[in-house]
Amino acid sequence: MKEFLTRLWLDLIGRIDGPLPFQLILQPVAAAFLAIRAGLKDVRMGYAAYGWAILSDPVRRHYLLCQGSKEIAKVFVVAVIIDLIYEIIVFHAIYVGQSMIVAVAVALVPYVLIRGPINRIVRRGHRGRTPLNLADLSGRSHS
User: Fold this and answer.
1) What are the residue boundaries of the structural domains of the chain, listed by start?
2) What is the model's pTM?
């Protein structure tokens, strides 16, 4: 067991300075993109920040969890695929457990940490203005 944990730790840490370190940039960037998109959609729909809404709105909680799981699944699948490609190139093997750990650490965590704050930032920036609409968020006017 100790050998397994040692190899796991070394393989995970090796991703930082090993070949293809771009994957550790690409995964959080993809997660951030999807989180920003989802946060802006939350604002357009008039929803509270995602995490807060789950905690404070028991009526919509189930819907929010289902909808959020779809978004998070996209992030997770992309992160796992990127890591599996890394493993095939570097290790010439696939370690699904390691890919899951990496996907959680570099994709899911950033997604969860970004989605709610984006909602709050956009809302704070629009306080006192007319209600938000798609044109407000995209910078284009709809005439």
Assistant:
1) 21-123
2) 0.69
